[in-house]
């Protein structure tokens, strides 16, 4: 079923516009809240993914977070420069780069749960529990997760 046609399509009323606007709001608010930790919202995703063992290589992170490999490399460079992570070559396959959080990276990642929920809860304050569950369900459906 087509929900949009050339006749009814309006940029500011499109799902894509609303998703991008919502993302930009959350990113700006998260970046501001994480400023004291000297990381951004995107960097938060990398740190938490590594801490939780969800991803351990740049490729896995790129796929999980929906970030192209070029941008991922630049973000990993910044995190490495800040002393938050280290790269190492895989012993069995030298083409594979493994990522590990440093002690500083683990400390920073441990502080994120003290910050991020406040940002998200503030944005979701007008939602009922049922609306929150439905939003999550619909976003998973939209992203095929």
UniProtKB/TrEMBL annotation:
Transmembrane segments: none
InterPro entries per record: HTH_MarR-typ, WH-like_DNA-bd_sf, WH_DNA-bd_sf
Keywords for the protein's UniProt record, in alphabetical order: DNA-binding, Transcription, Transcription regulation
Domain HTH marR-type: 1-144
This protein's record includes keyword Membrane: no
PROSITE patterns associated with the record: HTH_MARR_2 (PS50995)
Protein name: Transcriptional regulator SlyA
Organism in which the protein naturally occurs: Paraburkholderia hiiakae
Organism phylogeny: Bacteria, Pseudomonadati, Pseudomonadota, Betaproteobacteria, Burkholderiales
């Amino acid at each position: 079923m087509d929900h949009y046609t050339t006749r009814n399509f309006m940029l500011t009323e499109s799902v894509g516009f609303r998703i991008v606007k919502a993302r930009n709001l959350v990113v700006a608010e998260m970046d501001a809240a994480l400023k004291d930790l000297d990381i951004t919202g995107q960097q938060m995703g990398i740190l938490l993914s590594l801490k939780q063992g969800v991803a351990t290589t740049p490729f896995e992170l790129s796929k999980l977070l929906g970030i192209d490999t070029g941008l991922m490399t630049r973000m990993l460079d910044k995190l490495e420069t800040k002393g938050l992570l280290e790269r190492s070559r895989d012993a069995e396959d030298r083409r594979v780069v493994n990522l590990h959080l440093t002690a500083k990276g683990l400390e920073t990642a441990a502080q994120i749960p003290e910050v991020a929920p406040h940002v998200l809860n503030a944005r979701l304050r007008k939602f009922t529990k049922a609306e929150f569950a439905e939003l999550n369900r619909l976003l998973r459906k939209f992203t095929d997760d």
